[in-house]
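Exercise 7b. Backbone tokens:
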């Protein structure tokens, strides 16, 4: 039986809507969108996945995925962020979602934190700037393991901590919108790493023995190539760029427990891990969950002057991960492409990196076991609001029914999943083959709703 995982994903804040419904508390993104982002009024509904769960499930049925990667809205379970008696309506929603997936033989891949921190924790503690968040996050994660862990075998602690730290506390284009000092950015990153590690150890010690699940953290990156392949200076600059972005979190967790030397040499104020902390942090991921595509990692326009070119070659960055981190098992946990907001269902110009994934597996012996197309449905795209779309299913946000209408990309992905690879009529000669039987396909999204039109 084939075990390669094909999936699709979402993030709760992007798709759930119902930000004030059924006792849900406000998150930092609720506050940020209503105070900082224009044209964000419809985040109150978005694709309405909280209300229209059956439509999302129908979309998943249509694709035939083997897993669905979604996040839990922390403030829907605990409006104040502190673990006490859970909000019953929120608890019921996630139990229903998980049970409905399993009924369809779709594995839930659950993200504990996809950026929507309960607002009260930001106002009371300063959010991730405060080391107290490590224990508070662990309490929340522990509740989720206790409550859902009998049915969930794949957990993600934090989605893209680089963006949480860099854009949430540095550039200010993400919630909570702080334009702080670089020292603050790295302090936030430090706390995120330690929070992840603590949650991983909690699961290993108290839940893995009988739940038999796996825990990781989604890390994202750009990919930089030298202008001149023979120029050692250009190559060195590209290596340093990767270390500053992906290596910032990957080296402590997937490497030796410490930051890259590049970061330590450049930022003398960088927080330090003690030897005990290094030993505690290293190895705290059961697989390498990787996010890649056009994203917020795009560097400034000074790249050519620095001997660097931005590239979207997923195969190359997978090879870099293989070499840097001792050939880990890799889940492509987020991969997708933007289209303009006016594009409805004809998104044929939107490419996915499935071909790069296949080439990396077949020709480079990279251990990729799953692929997550992002995202299941159109939703709220963070600082871009509704000016871009990423869904495989089109949603008219102004309609009441908010039908989930499959785009060209959904039809294409559906066929790839059915064939477990590429079909000759659409393949180049070098890519006429199937993925290995232990590959998995998935999709991810934020919490919102869908329905299918045929």
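Sequence design result:
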């Amino acid at each position: 039986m084939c075990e390669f995982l094909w999936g699709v994903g979402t993030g709760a804040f992007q798709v759930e809507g119902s930000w004030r419904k059924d006792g849900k508390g406000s998150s930092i993104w609720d506050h940020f969108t209503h105070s900082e982002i224009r044209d964000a009024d419809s985040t109150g509904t978005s694709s309405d996945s909280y209300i229209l769960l059956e439509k999302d499930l129908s979309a998943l049925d249509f694709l035939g995925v083997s897993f669905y990667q979604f996040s839990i809205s922390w403030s829907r379970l605990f409006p104040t962020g502190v673990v006490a008696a859970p909000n019953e309506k929120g608890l019921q929603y996630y139990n229903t979602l998980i049970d409905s997936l399993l009924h369809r033989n779709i594995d839930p891949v659950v993200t504990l934190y996809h950026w929507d921190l309960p607002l009260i924790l930001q106002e009371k503690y300063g959010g991730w700037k405060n080391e107290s968040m490590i224990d508070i996050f662990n309490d929340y994660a522990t509740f989720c393991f206790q409550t859902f862990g009998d049915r969930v075998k794949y957990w993600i602690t934090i989605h893209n901590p680089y963006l949480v730290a860099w854009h949430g506390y540095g550039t200010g284009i993400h919630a909570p919108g702080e334009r702080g000092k670089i020292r603050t950015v790295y302090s936030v990153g430090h706390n995120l790493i330690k929070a992840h590690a603590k949650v991983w150890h909690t699961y290993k010690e108290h839940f893995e023995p009988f739940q038999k699940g796996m825990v990781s953290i989604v890390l994202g990156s750009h990919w930089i190539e030298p202008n001149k392949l023979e120029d050692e200076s250009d190559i060195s600059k590209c290596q340093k760029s990767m270390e500053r972005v992906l290596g910032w979190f990957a080296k402590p967790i997937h490497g030796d427990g410490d930051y890259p030397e590049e970061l330590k040499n450049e930022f003398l104020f960088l927080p330090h891990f003690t030897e005990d902390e290094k030993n505690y942090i290293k190895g705290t991921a059961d697989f390498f969950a990787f996010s890649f595509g056009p994203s917020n990692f795009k560097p400034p326009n000074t790249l050519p002057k620095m001997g660097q070119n931005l590239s979207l070659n997923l195969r190359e960055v997978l090879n870099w991960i293989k070499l840097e981190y001792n050939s880990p098992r890799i889940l492509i946990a987020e991969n997708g492409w933007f289209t303009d907001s006016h594009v409805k269902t004809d998104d044929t110009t939107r490419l996915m990196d499935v071909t790069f994934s296949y080439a990396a597996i077949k020709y480079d012996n990279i251990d990729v076991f799953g692929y997550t197309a992002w995202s299941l449905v159109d939703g709220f795209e963070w600082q871009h609001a509704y000016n871009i779309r990423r869904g495989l299913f089109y949603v008219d946000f102004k309609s009441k029914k908010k039908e989930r209408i499959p785009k060209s990309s959904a039809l294409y992905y559906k066929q790839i999943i059915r064939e477990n690879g590429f079909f000759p009529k659409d393949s180049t000669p070098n890519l006429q083959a199937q993925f290995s039987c232990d590959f998995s396909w998935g999709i991810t999204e934020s919490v919102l709703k869908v329905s299918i039109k045929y």
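Instructor comment: The domain at 5-446 is CATH 3.20.20.80 (TIM Barrel). The first helix runs from residue 12 to 15.
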